[in-house]
Amino acid sequence: MPLTPLDIHNKEFSRGFRGYDEDEVNDFLDQVIKDYETLIHDKKVLEEKVHKLEERLGHFSNIEETLNKSILVAQETAEDVKQNATKEAKLIVKEAEKNADRIINESLSKSRKIALDIEELKKQASVYRTRFRMLIEAQLELLKNDEWDKLSETMEDGELEAASSGE
Fold it and tell me: CB pairs under 8 A, 24+ apart, for 30-37?
């Protein structure tokens, strides 16, 4: 079992004739050296392991940072696409409203023109009807007039004369 700092601190050497027992001190120092060499080696191994883990951690941190940036870019792109789609939708709606207004205005204009044409045709029909009535009435007046009878008699007399002179 490796020595602890407390073991080293509390170690007491027995006194020999000229002080501490030299073999006991040397054995202890050999044990301390061996334990420290092990600790130094273990420390070096652990430092290398820590270094490798820090490198991997840095690599994963870079990946995480890259992913976070990618997510942000994707979110910004999605927001831009959404905004552009909204703008385009508004433009389409405005264009549709303009077209609808234009179609309505054209329809109203055509409707007014047709209404004016109908009124004009009604007036012309009324004028035609009045003229036709007047023509028929004038013709009836002519038929009712005594002039027809005289003309008819004159023609009959003329036919009789022609017939008698031709015999």
Answer: 31/3, 32/3, 32/8, 35/2, 35/3
pTM of the model: 0.43
Per the DSSP assignment, residues forming a β-bridge with 15 are 20
* C-alpha–C-alpha distance, residues 22 and 26, integer Å: 6
Contact 13, 2 (CB under 8 A): no
- Read off the pLDDT of residues 112-135 as tens digits, 9 standing for 90 and up: 999 999 999 999 999 999 999 999
149 HSE (CA, 13 A, CB side): 4
Which residue is associated with the tokens 């031709």? 166
- The CA-atom distances, in angstroms, between 104 and each of 14, 101, 140, 159 are 119, 5, 52, 74
As given in the structure block, the two tokens for residue 28 are: 């202890």
**For 50, how many CA atoms within 13 A lie in the half-sphere containing its CB?**
6
Q: CA 74 to CA 32: how far, in whole Å?
A: 60
The CA–CA distances, whole Å, from 26 to 14, 15, 47 equal 13, 14, 31
14 touches 20 (CB < 8 A): yes
Percent of the chain whose pLDDT exceeds 90: 57
